[in-house]
Structures are given as C-alpha cells and as structure tokens.
Design a protein that fits this description.
This protein is mainly alpha-helical and about 250 residues long. It has 8 helices and no strands.
Length: about 250
Amino acid sequence: MDAEPTSLPERGTALLILRCERSEPRRTQGVVTGALDTMDQKDRVRPVSEPGIGELFAVFAKIGLLSFGGPAGQIALMHRVLVEEKRWLDEPRFLHALNYCMLLPGPEAMQLATYAGWLVHGVRGGLVAGLLFVLPGAAVLIALSTIYLLAGEVTLVQGLLFGLKAAVLAVVLEALIKVSRRALKSRWLGVLAVVAFVAIAFLQVPFPLIVLGAALVGAAAHLLSGRSDSDTADLADTGQAMPEWARPS
C-alpha cells in the first residue's frame, strides 16, 4: 500500500492525479459518443467562404457553358462545383434541394441552380444563377446548330458531332453513378430505384404515379422502422448555417 502524502505539495499533486484519472473515462466516453453522433458528418461540407456576386456570376457562367449531358450531367457538375470545390452547399442540403426540385414541375436542374444561387446570395443570386444557367447553354446550342446547318454534310463536322455524342453519353453515365452513390445509402433504396426505373422505362408507368408510390413506400418503411422524430432530426440539421433570408419568418 502506498504511503499517504503528508506535505501540502504532495497532497496537491495527488489530488490533481486523482482528478485526471476520474475525468479520463468521461473524456474518452465523450469522444466515442461524439464520433458516433457525427459519423454522418463525412458527407457534410461546411462552407469555407461566402462568395461575392462577382464570383457567383463567374461560377454559374462556367456551369452554364460546361453543363452538357442534360439534367444528369448538369446536376453532377453543380454538385462538383458547389459542394466539392466551392463548398457553398453541404451534401445533405444539396440532396434535399434536388429531391424537392424533382417534385416541382419544370426542369429540375435549372430549379436547383436557382435555389443554390438564392441560398448563397439571396434574390440577386437566384436571378444570376437562373439566367446564367440558361443563356450560355442557349448560345452554345445556337452556335452548334448554325455549324450543323452550314456544314453538316462535311465529314469532319459529322465526326466531331459523333464524338460529342459519345462524350455526352460518358458524362451522363458518370453523373448517374456519382449521384446514385450519394443518394442511395441503403439496399432497399437501391431496390426501389431499380423498380422505379423498370416501371418508367419498360412498363410506361406515368411519372407522377412512380413518385407517389415511392413516397408511400418511404413513409411505410419509416413507420415500420419505429424511429422517432428525434432519430431523424439530423435530416433537418445539415451542419450549415442557414442564411437570414432563408429562415422562416
């Protein structure tokens, strides 16, 4: 048995060691608990800066010029630029916005761009992002159409257009794989996506019925899992501060 400390410095040292030993399990437990609570944070990217209107203009002009491949390619490009490179949006908010835009009538990619611009820079940002998402692509389309009308029968032009088709197909496939890996995070979601694809591609089921069926299946799965609202509260907390104009009044 160790001798009991007698002097005041020895007692102070012993008391400090005892407190450290007692607090160590708590600290370790807190680290473990925090790690478990934030495992899903790897998909959340906090913004590192708030862009000015000039930077926003340049970024969405670039997106408008490079967004080949239809909605799939455009959405993948916006994810790479806005979430991975610029970090203006985090992963959950981008996916939630994409889900909402898919339900709205109209082109979902343009709606997503407008929403992202509004979220970053308010009404001015939404107008800039929406217009720049359309105008550069329209100019490129007019230029390609003019070239095809003037020299569409030239072998070189036909070869260039054929190569462009192949490149666009590769962009669409890459975008499909990239977005599906982030959105389909469980096996049953993958099965649901395959069923929806078969229904719309081969069975000619109307799109509104597919969306309604997927919503009902998701609601049923949530109820059967027995999770409470607190278990899914992290869906609303995206880890990114909501700007003042986006908060409910």
